[in-house]
Write a structure and sequence with these properties.
Cyclic Phosphodiesterase, Chain: A; four-stranded antiparallel beta sheet; five-stranded antiparallel beta sheet; 4 helices; alpha+beta; globular
Length: 191
């Protein structure tokens, strides 16, 4: 039985994707030790699921339909740059979220709870809304990027209308990951 590597995501608008891709292009020459995320792969991960069987994915789909019921669409402002675990020695570089971040956290919690009821293990770390833009192969390689990230703490990338979440498939190849949508789950305020 084939296992499908999957995750739950909020997808970006073309405008936001272009703004973030432009940032990555400007940082690339200084960040040679960074594995930059391809523009087509940029997204907000709500929950990583790993390898799932068809039967498990059926349960996940039911859980996601449950999680989105009663959640009104919202807007998410993409603002600032940062890194995990911090900017002293980051391993992951990201674009942050401000307005709407609380709504994204509530949505992620609903996804987490609903999928847990379907047998998906809970995430150990608390959800922090962010858009991963790169991963450092060597934390010392961050030094040439430090000033850009310090100066970019208030950079505004735009507002994203969040009206659905997506169950995504991740296919790994020597050329990198390729993502495709398995199913969309519209946010729908309870009547």
């Amino acid at each position: 039985m084939e296992k499908i590597r999957s995750f739950v995501a909020i997808l970006l608008s073309d405008e936001i994707r272009e703004a973030v891709a432009s940032l990555i292009d400007s940082l690339r020459p200084s960040g040679r030790s960074v594995g930059w995320v391809k523009p087509d792969n940029l997204h907000f991960t709500l929950k990583f699921l790993g390898n799932q069987s068809d039967e498990q994915l059926d349960r996940v789909q039911g859980g996601l339909a449950e999680a989105t019921t009663g959640v009104a669409p919202f807007e998410l402002s993409l603002v600032g740059l940062g890194g995990f675990p911090d900017l002293r020695r980051p391993r992951v570089l990201w674009v942050g979220a401000s307005d709407g971040a609380d709504a994204a956290i509530v949505l992620a919690q609903k996804v987490e709870e609903s999928l847990h009821r379907q047998g998906v293990p809970r995430e150990e770390r608390p959800f922090s809304p962010h858009l991963t833009i790169g991963r450092l192969k060597d934390p010392r390689g961050f030094e040439p990027l430090r000033s850009a990230f310090t100066e970019g703490c208030a950079r505004v990338f735009g507002r994203l209308a969040v009206s659905a979440i997506h169950l995504m498939r991740s296919e790994l190849s020597p050329k990198g990951a390729r993502y495709s949508v398995l199913e969309a789950f519209p946010l729908s305020r309870a009547h």
